[in-house]
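Saturday, quiet lab. Running sequence design on the structure tokens for the scaffold JK sent over.
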């Protein structure tokens, strides 16, 4: 009888408590591990999403600036200049919008680093319709008009002013950096190529455009080299 009683003897209270404690610790470790795994996965997804957004914005930037047209404008005195004006922190030009079915529909486009509603820097695109009729080359546009009797500025200056306050705006890239720097390379016939910080009232497009974003530590976070495609067309025409 005593032998049967020994065989039927169960766990002691201490053994049960130890088992429950170990089980609880194992469950805690499993839960913590799952949470860390989920957080790491979400972090990877967020990083990949941010990288995809940056790559899309960089592609858009290359596409826009690369399609800048060498449209010729005239001031009131008859002086000609190209429809392109570059500054160290912004650029204004004429080009078709990406995704447009008709590449003959051109727009004034301005790209600059602006502040969003929360005060954060964002790479912003603003645009206005550009008409290719002879009237616009004489200084008159449907959306950009020069008032008679005023001190007549260049048409592109008026375009820049209107683009700054245009409602047609697109945020290409939020928080691309603390500072934007754009340079324009010129390759004159008699001199070696050099970079310019401005490109104003010129007769032709720059040979190469360099776009750089700087972070808060003033290190370059992104650098793009963009060549206007019009130069490629000129090379092909010369080859023919």
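Result came back. Writing it out in full:
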């Amino acid at each position: 009888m005593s032998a049967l009683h020994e065989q039927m003897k169960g766990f002691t209270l201490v053994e049960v408590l130890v088992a429950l404690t170990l089980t609880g610790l194992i469950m805690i470790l499993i839960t913590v591990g799952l949470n860390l795994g989920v957080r790491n996965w979400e972090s990877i997804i967020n990083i990949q999403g941010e990288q995809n957004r940056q790559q899309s914005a960089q592609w858009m930037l290359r596409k826009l600036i690369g399609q800048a047209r060498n449209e010729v404008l005239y001031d009131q005195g008859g002086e000609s200049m190209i429809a392109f004006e570059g500054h160290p922190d912004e650029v204004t030009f004429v080009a078709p919008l990406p995704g447009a079915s008709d590449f003959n529909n051109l727009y004034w486009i301005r790209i600059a680093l602006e502040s969003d509603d929360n005060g954060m820097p964002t790479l912003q695109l603003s645009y206005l319709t550009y008409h290719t009729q002879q009237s616009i080359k004489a200084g008159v546009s449907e959306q950009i008009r020069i008032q008679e009797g005023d001190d007549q500025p260049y048409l592109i200056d008026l375009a820049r002013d209107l683009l700054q306050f245009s409602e047609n705006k697109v945020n290409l890239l939020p928080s691309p950096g603390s500072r934007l720097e754009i340079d324009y390379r010129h390759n004159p016939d008699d001199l070696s190529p050099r970079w310019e910080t401005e490109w104003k009232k010129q007769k032709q497009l720059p040979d190469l455009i360099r776009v750089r974003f700087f972070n808060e530590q003033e290190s370059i976070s992104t650098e793009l080299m963009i060549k206007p495609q019009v130069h490629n067309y000129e090379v092909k025409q010369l080859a023919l």
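Notes for JK: Confidence is low (pLDDT under 50) at residues 132-153, 233-240. The two ends are 112 Å apart (CA to CA). Ask whether to fix the surface positions before the next round.
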